[in-house]
Fold these 3 entries.
Entry 1:
Amino acid sequence: MTVLVSVIVGLGLSFVIGLAARAALRAAAPARHRPMFRDMPLTASFGLAVILAYVVVAVLAPVIAPFGEGEVLGDQYLPWAAPHYLGTDKLGRDMLTRLIYGARNTVGIAFATTALAFVAGAVLGIWAALAGGWMDQGLSRLVDALMAIPALIFSLLLLTIFGTSVLTLILVIAAVDATRVYRLARSVAQGIVVMDYIEAARLRGEGNWHLIRREILPNAMAPLAAEFGLRFCFVFLSISALSFLGLGIKPPTADWGSMVRENATLITFGDITPLLPAGAIALLTVAVNFVVDWQLQRASGLKE
Amino acid sequence: MTNPTFPRGMTRRSLLKGTMAITAAGLILPAHMAPAQAEPKKGGVFRVGIGHGSTTDGYDPGLWDQLFVQTFAAARHNYLIEIAADGNLVPEIAESWDSADGATWVFRIRQGVTFHSGKTLTPDDVVASLNHHRGEASTSAVKPYFDPVTDIKVDGQNVVVTLNAPNADFPYLMSDYHLPVMPGTDGKIDPTSTDGCGGYVVESYEPGVQATLNRNPNYWKAGRAHFDQIVLLTILDPAARLNALMTSEVDTIDQVDPASISLLESRGVAKILSISGNAHYCFPMDARAAPFTDNNVRLALKYAFDRQELVDKILAGHGSVANDNPIGPANRYFFAGMEAKAYDPDKAKFHLKEAGMDKLEVALSAANAAFSGAVDAAVLMSEKAAAANITITVDRVPDDGYWDNVWMKKPFCASYWGGRPVEDQMFTTAYQSGAAWNESFWSNEAFDKLLVAARSELDDAKRREMYQEMQRLVSFDGATIIPMYNNYVMALANTVATPEKVSNNWNLDGFRCVERWWFA
Amino acid sequence: MTGIWRMIGQRLLLGVLTLFIISLVIFGATELLPGDLARELLGQSATEETLAALREQLGLNEPAPVRYWNWLTGVLQGDFGVSMATQRPISELVGARLGNTLFLALYAAALSVPLSLLLGVLAALWRNSVFDRASNALALTVISFPEFFVAYILILWLAQTGLFPSMVRITGATTTGDLLYSAFLPALTLTLVVTAHMMRMTRAAIINLMASPYIEMARLKGMSPMRVVLRHAVPNALAPIINVVALNLAYLITGVVVVEVVFVYPGLGQLMIDAVTNRDIPVVQAIALIFASAYVLLNLLADVLSTVTNPRLMHRT
């Protein structure tokens, strides 16, 4: 029953947030961008509102958070009551504070990692498709070889060898993700390079870089954007899986992936504490992908 | 002071001697079992979910290192001597043992015992089993036990072991889980064989997955090994273990996640068995490396965190505060009256000042491979130490390769000990100068001298005094922070019955749950 | 068609090269890891003496290139050797677990591939409808939970209520029927984990084509939306769909160690983690080669199918 009620309340709330955000965006946007927001679906405005809220929370974390990031304040697992509105975790730290700081650390790292993976993966993938022949084969076999090693074990090997600072964490996850992006980008681009307009551009004597930037990338944007939305969220999961093996972000830094892992056994007893960080990740995932969908829709030029 | 684990008024002779007379009560009809309690019933399939076990587990007894292989071994093998639930030594394959001077030990081998293969056990088998761990080429983890052994030979129905110096505790070593009695051929055992003389015969074994054993119909012990079949399962994930118990896939699990103990209890589907023993969690500092060379720095750190908080939050109360003492309340010569160390930032600052510092910055390397909750414990220590102007930077390191890469390599890290039944074994293993596993590299001449002297001291009162002085030295001069003794926490289905007293020497009733427990 | 066969031949040869590269990478990486088998086997109780004795016994004293060469020549003769830790033949060690892993992968694939294609096509067809939004949001929510978390929730709902077992036990007496029942929860967990990805790619690939002139044309001719999608959009969107399906199938074979741990399922993933932590290099190598072969073959299959379904690519190969 409670599940049903909270789902209904949640949906209603999202609906209101979506409406409010759309109205606000329409009012606030400069005149020439206003048409873009006019037809914006509610899901997209909801997504934008959520992303905006996360960014604000992430940037202002030290101001908003009621306590210090790693501060141990009292007993473990205190109930939800003032001053600990979401209770305390197993060390007696304020859950709300941890979640707020978690936004800052997790979203920052996830964004950096995904951006890096996409720049490297997409550029190399499209270039390989365009160049074809020996270069394509060489790169693709290398990527195949790297991908054939399970991601978790590959990360484990790399992190054990190179250490576990935040920078190596970003680089390692980005490297693993980039191979996946490469494969997708290459296969999408392969479908495009055989199009007549690419032939035409080649005949005009355009260079590879121009082809990638002006002809292929715009046409390959849709599947890549869809992939970006998902990859972004997979980074949280990678961090969570790595904390399963005792790697991941160093304490007392708060991050959602590790927080889910830390509290996971409680779910066995129907306790909802672990749902908080997992819910924070899920909400962001849904929000990001709603916005991506909206942009996909716009890019495809479909009206209905 | 009364001692709960060792009868008072022990004479020099009885210290060195074990016979049926002392211990019959502990074996056939356990005296600790209240008369009102129901007699153990026979039957049933006992399934244990164990949080250890790897696909690379082998059969070689010298390499056994965790609970799955230990319990598996206790089910199929017998040892020379058993440690009873109350901590006393009781005869198993050795019917009795005796030594005139503590240096020459005579073990009388029980007659009429057969291996699962049908072969009759002889003293030659015992010698072969012991020799597997002895000598240059041995790869056994307990090889150091045999370093002082100069000779092992058969004398009729006896096995005679000669040491190069007296050791009153030698019989305790012979109860070690690495030393099962296995069938020998030409003076050698086959370390890949599963043949033993224990209560259960191996039906199937898949390393890292499961072992199934059936009751040995010819088992020589009466009133032991009650189950028809034993199934040991490796379930590494703590939540999966809990789920397996709650959905009745298993009857008993070990290492219950502290966070879920109270939740599990409130469900009423299982009972919690929380046994306090000598096992402890610790944080060794490298006594050779600055700033830990200065005992004032070590003392400052020992006063800079809240031990009770660690017991409450890391162990969920299932343990007790330790005073940097590796000898636990279950040991014979435990020094209970030692001055306790409370959380006292002022005292910590005082010691820092003595060391000529007004603030201290150290890095503490931790991974949950050291013990479950090690990283959290380090975080809690770091939080509390701030008030004493001590900055502890928690360096979380990978679980993988922890014992090789971090332990005894980084100057300040997390570690654990399963506890040892005898003081000498604990101190010799981890605190004697230059010992292979002296993880803090601490070296104290007075301590070393006492250690050697106590080993051959046969007067119980004097021995007690010596061991207590050693505990004081380790606690107030040593380089190992020992904040807590952790209980062995198991969860049992309501159908499982145990004797009133469950052993605190190792987990799962000293690995003997398979033999001592039954279905009510 | 001969182009295709030539491509397959080429790719198989290159696949062998890939396998060789992988064996080198894995061997090198495990060599770089601190510690060795002797150290891991003895654990906390290792002393210099016992370490030396065990290293001698295991043949770890030989230089790395020699050990690699010995391993490689063995494999080329079809002999994967024995596990250094247990001295059991690797073929025996891996054999049963490979079967279990493939069974679970096929089980999950049989559930997830039809489901995600169906949902993806329907979502594209009824894009922006309530169905589209709801299935999308649901899929995204599921995918944003870590695998172990999804598994715990399924256990809470479906195992603690007694509907399905919370763990898998495979003994000699287990029949396929039993296995289908007891492995349902792990298969369902994996299904939930991979469905969102495949479904969203299917939807995106189809929608991407919906504004193309030829689709416009078909629509203007008065074709029903269902026919437009199935006859005109889907065939042209197959390349990315096939790729993402191949990627996820490979994942189901190689990346399910967390699910194996939670459901105590004896598959290859756990064996590989154990072998890595114990530095049992021959076992690591053997499993890496199995995983790599699965990858290479699935990717080859995906490329062949993409090429076959896009005639324009044929001319280039």
Note: The two ends of chain C are 11 Å apart (CA to CA).
Entry 2:
Amino acid sequence: MENINLVAALSRWIHFMAGVMWIGLLYYFNFVQVAALKNAGADGTAAGITKHVAPRALLFFRWAAVVTWLAGAALLGPLFVDAFLLRNGMGPIGIGAWLGTIMLFNVWVLIWPNQKKILGMTPASDDEKNAARRVAFLASRTNTMLSIPMLFFMANGWSHRALFGL
Amino acid sequence: MILARGYPTKMVNYLEMGERTMKNPLDSLWGTVIAGVVLTAVLVVFARNFLG
């Protein structure tokens, strides 16, 4: 029993730390970098961001997403299936888990491969780069939008239990 | 000829008539945040009414 509690405590701790890094960097990209790059492009200083800041931020961003999801799965433990099937009182946290999973998919399938083209890590023509820019932007904005209900349902404390009649 | 009177052949420019094109809310930060809050409200209603 003590071991189970220790695993849950460690999982929750890691889930929170990695989650703060993931969503913090997501908000940095959307609330800071997009607007900053627009201004930096105008005065020719964008390379400072695209060469030195963005690749490093993306590294921590995408791996923090993986660690957050794995720690969340470990935290759910035997309730993992109940959460994803939204049953046995695990509906609200399950909604949060589904939103987080969709966001992880967006990071690895839509954002990262397209960012690699934009940053020149994989070869791409100008047209491909422009298309990649739009896909990565919309996927990133979608994740920002999804993070709002995701964080609401993840904070599944007593106030939420009362709200959902659990 | 009678039928033709009911079907104008001239193309109508709806933009000139004041109709606005729909924009993607995710193109603006405010649109993104508002869409997230609306989605939260929709999911809360769903969770309260359809989940056990």
Note: DSSP finds two helices and no strands in chain B.
Entry 3:
Amino acid sequence: MASFSNFGNDLYTGARSVRIVGRQRLWYTISALLILISVVGPIMRGGFNFGIEFSGGSEFVVSNVASGANQAIATSTVETVVPSVVPKVSLLGGTSIRIQTAQLTDIQTRDIRNLLATNYNVPTEDVTASFIGATWGADITAQALRGLVVFLILAALVMTIYFRTWKMSVAALVALLHDLVITAGIYGISGFEVTPGAVIGLLTILGYSLYDTVVVFDKVRENTMGSGRDLSKTFGQQVNLAVNQTLVRSINTSVVAALPVASILFIGAVILGAGTLRDISLALLIGIIVGTYSTIFLATPLYAQLRSNEPAIRKYDKKVLANQAKAVESVSV
Amino acid sequence: MSKSSPVNKAWKSLAWLLVLVAGLVAVNGAGVMFGGGSWTPKLALDLEGGTQIVLAPQLESGQSVTAEQLVQAVSIIRQRVDAAGVSESEISTQGANNIVVSIPGQPDDATLARIQASAKLEFRPVLVTSAPSSATIGADGVSTPAPTADPSLSTIPAISPSNASDLNYITPALEAQFIAFDCATESTAATNVAPADLPLITCDNTNTAKFLLGPVEVSGSDISDATSSLVTTQTGASTGQWAVNIVFNDAGTSTFAGVTSRLFGMTGAQNQFAIVLDGKVISAPSTNAVITDGRPQITGGFTQDSAKVLADQLKYGALPIGFQVQSSDTISATLGSTQLANGILAGVIGLILVVVYSLLQYRMLGLVTVFSLAVAAVITYLLVTILSWREGYRLSLAGVAGLIVAIGITADSFIVYFERVRDELRDGRGLESAVEAGWKRALRTIIASDTVNFLAAVTLFILAIGNVRGFALTLGLTTIVDLIVVMLFTHPVMQILAQTKFFGGGNKWSGLDPTALGAVYRGRARFQAPAAAKGTKAAGSAKEASKRQTIAERKAETLTSEKDTQISAKGNR
């Protein structure tokens, strides 16, 4: 790990520097490609795979079934009671079987429940029946979207006041939208069901993405405003140094944030099967990675670009560049 | 800078932290001893197992529910559920429209029916009654169903009705509808919702008769109490007959007096008034007296049980609006505990990974992260437990996920802080002052970023519904805990550690070794030769040179040399 801390030292002093600001075209192209994949990917798969919470329907869970129990029993059971329904059967946590169908009547539900208990040889209490109205998931999402819009407005205001420039807010929000689109897209491509859990994961991403951007932007603010700035550097160079100086922190933070989420995803996907944990953690894991990426490679260069055309900055940059050129001359003499 | 002052401050901060934790423990302890609290947080249905029913109001078009109505509905449904003997049920509003009923285990059909039956209760005068079927049996003995009502029939009364019992309400269209009405199909036709000021066609709850009722005269919310009792004679002897006693509030009393004085003089069906619950007639007593004191008694054919049921319905049935089940979700206790166990397992694995990574990255400094996380975990656990006792918060799977995610965000504060301290070390400060200077800058960043996070949590908590709220709550909670821990634990501990030989001396394993960090400041007033001097062999641009310089060098240069000609850009504005 010593090499990693050397890497950190070099990034800090500028001995080694990743040129992030100034290669906007490359980063924008990558992001545009990612977004394109995120939009086209789910469409190619036939749209998002909405869970029962969004489409509405009935759900049965048979617990404590013998391991390796035959899932076909579930299908035939449902078809015995309601021939017209095509059930979706999946394994849940090793010892449970989940059966999802279109919405059934109370009587059909009771019949299927009893028959499932008989066929799987478990007590009736181990078979649970649920039904979800089609508007339920949509209601949650509609409320969440309202929350999202209000949050974005508030966050933009807070950032504008804190950083004293609205351009940082714009850059941060663009990065945030980028994260949301890509997270949703990759989630869609994975083929996991879109459940309220996934929506929650997506909402957390907006908090995390902005959080990450604020940490880096605070360093940018330090390096470009007030007494902390290095007057031998152009504005873009100052911003670039800031993002490099926080690179180690960005890597460490994203690893530390991703590790627990990855372990939830692993446990959720491998042991539990479909469910809230798996859905939340997949959305989160994608979001953390994309969020860290976008802070460094989208928000920061975008911010530098937004500011670079301001007359004051242009004037300052021109002067600095002239001085740098002069310095080159004086060295070569 | 006085040498002992940061350390004194540090011990003071730690003392405050201790007071805070002790206070939380005491509060929760008091809760356990006196107030029904517990040392473990209550679990939500998805972890504990149980049934969650989401009810949505069944509104006439153009209507909307107010928050007060919803709260009233919740309290009434709660009474109903409690009356059904279901313990530990939880009923709450969700969002602007929904009511969530959470019941441990799987409720029996009777309980479910009871919750679902919750609906508005209203008193309407009876206009016409008849047999439940729509068919007529002709002279040939064959039953013919009545034709469906012709839509062209007039729906406006020819003579405007003078009171609620006025038969002028029965327009030709209504009459045809009534004749065509069949109790057997009534539930699917969903006709049992009608505006309060218009007549209603419905059946009784056993489908033995159908009714054509006048507009609502007294609504259920005017009932202040209803009981069942044995009828006593004037001397106090019991007649052995069960009765239901209603007590109206003031408004109900005067309206009901008016209704009974009108109905008392009428004959046949019109002498009856119907008590309609959820669009079904639960009782249609005839009026034997004018009731002016607002305390009518219903008698006739009641058993003890049926009298109690009607009284309960009257008492609790005064819901302002009808509700329908929007979703009913049952999770078995087995599945819930599997989810919880695996969620905790995932958390533990994640935590171990974080600890290992921290130690690799920050050596012994990583231990500070580990202990800070431990302190954060203790405070969060206590807060969640107290919240679940005081505010009825229940930890759901989404909440657990929120807590696990919080590990990352909390650890980030420490990372930001450590990196700032390292930056200061790189600039050549001694550890003590690096800790103070790094802290000042890190705190700004931490507060700014935590503000954004907290904002997200609060917004979601206020605006979102369901699982999202539980998630937002843990997110907001951990953000605050993060601030508390980094201020009252991590920083003070760093201040104290900076005094130790191990850390202050920059031991190789401390994670704060200035040499490893490439610091240019070695001991007092001894600067390394400027990097620029040794590294300009090739093209040697000034840009490169300045890049290789550290801030400390630059500062040193500005302090010590005015004759530096190499970096002429400096101070040249």
Note: The mean pLDDT of chain B is 75.
